[in-house]
Amino acid sequence: MRALFLYHDQNKKFVPIADGFTIGRSEGSLRFDHDPLISRVHCRFHLVGSDIFVEDLDSTNRTQVNRVPIMPKRRRRLLLNDVIKVGDQRLILTQQQAHEPAGSQDATMYRKIVALKGVEATLSTEVQKPAQEGGSTTLLLANSDLSSELHSADSRRHRMLEKKMKRRGALLEKRSMRRWSIGIAVASFAWVAFQLLSA
């Protein structure tokens, strides 16, 4: 069987893993006692043939694989360079320990991605503003700021995120315009009804 390692992104160390390997705060094969977001025993790794799975052990803050939470007591198949997030710890699955895996990012790039998620949340709330309050204008400005931020990144992941945000920005602007059109139609109908009733 091939050797597998978890690369800890923060302290730049490789940890060998085997069947039954666990991660936790106070118990487990790998412990992070300084991270309050990790449960006592957070997750377990299973080797089945040539496949590797991670199982969330009903943790308070669920285990994530590539930013997608795993359902408690469910196994999720892992591929090389998958990013496993346990609490605030980022671990990358690799089969070598000579150099950083392809999925690793320096801390500043990771913070940029987290900041972009905040901008995405702002975009979601801005579309709920009525058009006459400037919701569409704010949306376009936020979307252009996001695009310029994404153009500075040169990795494939950032290009994919840029495409996703452009599609989402166009969709949000379209929804805002639809709400504005519906508002105009309702106001017109009310005016016609008022004119008919007052005549």
Number of helices: 3
Rg estimate, integer Å? 24 Å
Average predicted confidence as pLDDT: 77
Strand order of the largest sheet: 2-1-11-10-7-8
How many discrete domains? 2
Question: Ranges with pLDDT <50 over ≥5 residues?
Answer: 126-132, 135-154
Overall geometry? elongated
What string, H for helix and E for strand, traces the elements in order?
A: EEEEEEEEEEEHHH
Strand content: 15-25%
What is the strand tally? 11
Largest sheet: 6 strands, antiparallel
Structural class: alpha+beta
Kindly report how far apart the N and C termini lie: 88 Å
Helix content: 40-55%
Question: Could you characterize what this model shows?
Answer:
- The protein has 199 residues and is of the alpha+beta class.
- It has two domains: 4-94, Tumour Suppressor Smad4; 107-198.
- The protein is built from three helices and eleven strands; from the N terminus they run βββββββββββααα.
- The protein has helices at 107-126, 135-151, 156-198; strands spanning 4-8, 13-17, 22-24, 30-31, 43-48, 51-56, 64-65, 68-69, 75-78, 83-86, 89-94.
- The strands form two sheets. It has a six-stranded antiparallel beta sheet, with no helix packed on it.
- A hairpin with a 2-residue loop joins strand 7 (64-65) and strand 8.
- Helix 1 (107-126) runs antiparallel to helix 2 and helix 2 (135-151) packs antiparallel against helix 3.
- The longest helix has 43 residues, at 156-198.
- The protein starts with a strand and ends with a helix.
- Mean pLDDT is 77; it is low at 126-132 and 135-154.
